[in-house]
Amino acid sequence: MALSRRERIRASWSRCAERGLAVDFLRVPFSDDVDTDSRLVHYAAPVLAALRSSLANEPVAVLLSDRSGLVLRRECDDPAFLKALDDVVLAPGATYSEEAVGTNGFGLALADDRVSLVASRDHYNHSLRDYICAGVPIHDPADGATVGALSLTVWSRTPADLLSALATQTAMNIEARFPGRAGAGRLPGAPETPPDHGRVLPKQRPSQQPRHRLTRIEALERDAIAGALARAGGDAATQPPISVCRGRPCTAVSSTTASKASEKSSSRGSAAPLSVSI
């Protein structure tokens, strides 16, 4: 029987405690030796670039790591958010495995080989609690082996109900670029993709239209859900309505330093903090 998200977070915290990881001081392994020409980067680059273009100027980071948790690539156009990520060394060259920095989106996705949402206080280290991370393992369709992970990272106060869906869709798009058997690299629990016979999803009924103007990330999240319904053989028009709610690398930082970046960003205007139950 699969563990619930709450149980997985607790299990991860137990592993972190057994390793003696600190909760109030973040020490991130960093290396200048990053393979930017790997197969994973080659196949993922166009997908990441397209998503970055869709999220232009939004405080969202699209990150790619290898199977060890070494960050290979980071896509983000928001200067303040990039500075905040630099402050916690979440940048190419950093290792964000569970063993290195504690419970986080990358780390839990790789440890459990499952889609993993790590929100705010789910993070083991206090320096990372200003963020929500949706991590998804990436598999080679040829043999199903885990080759890396994708993480979408936003501020902890950002409504992110469908962030995991968008991250999952992006990871599947990356896997689809790998040569191999169709469906061999399918994510655990994801529906098998039926042949596409040119079916076009029907437009939303008027009663299903959102009551507010969607942000770019909310629109992408909605489309990811619609794509998942289509792959499962469902009809978007007959499904229940989808509710869309409203650098300079270093080696160590304290939780106080990390929180300052989030406070500086508050003047940009944001929604109320997201409460994610696990």
Report what the structure shows.
The strands form two sheets. Strands 3-2-6-5-4 form a five-stranded antiparallel beta sheet, sandwiched between helices. The protein has a two-stranded antiparallel sheet with strand order 1-7. The protein has helices spanning 5-19, 39-54, 79-87, 98-101, 105-112, 163-177, 216-231, 255-265, and strands at residues 25-27, 60-66, 71-75, 116-119, 131-139, 146-155, 252-254. Mean pLDDT is 77; it is low at 183-212, 232-251 and 254-278. A hairpin with a 6-residue loop joins strand 5 (131-139) and strand 6. It is globular, with a radius of gyration of 18 Å. The protein is built from eight helices and seven strands. The longest helix has 16 residues, at 39-54. Helices cover 34% and strands 15% of the residues. The chain is α+β, with helices and mostly antiparallel strands and 278 residues long.
Quick summary:
The protein has helices spanning 5-19, 39-54, 79-87, 98-101, 105-112, 163-177, 216-231, 255-265, and strands at 25-27, 60-66, 71-75, 116-119, 131-139, 146-155, 252-254. It has 278 residues and is of the alpha+beta class.
Question: Reading side by side through the largest sheet, how are the strands ordered?
Answer: 3-2-6-5-4
Compute the average pLDDT: 77
- For the secondary structure, the number of strands is 7
> Which class of secondary structure composition applies to the elements?
alpha+beta
Rg is 18 Å
Strand content: 5-15%
| Largest sheet entry | 5 strands, antiparallel
Query: What is the first-to-last residue Cα distance?
Result: 17 Å
Measured as a percent range, the helix fraction is 25-40%
Order of helices and strands: HEHEEHHHEEEHHEH
Q: Ranges with pLDDT <50 over ≥5 residues?
A: 183-212, 232-251, 254-278
| DSSP helical segment count | 8
Shape: globular
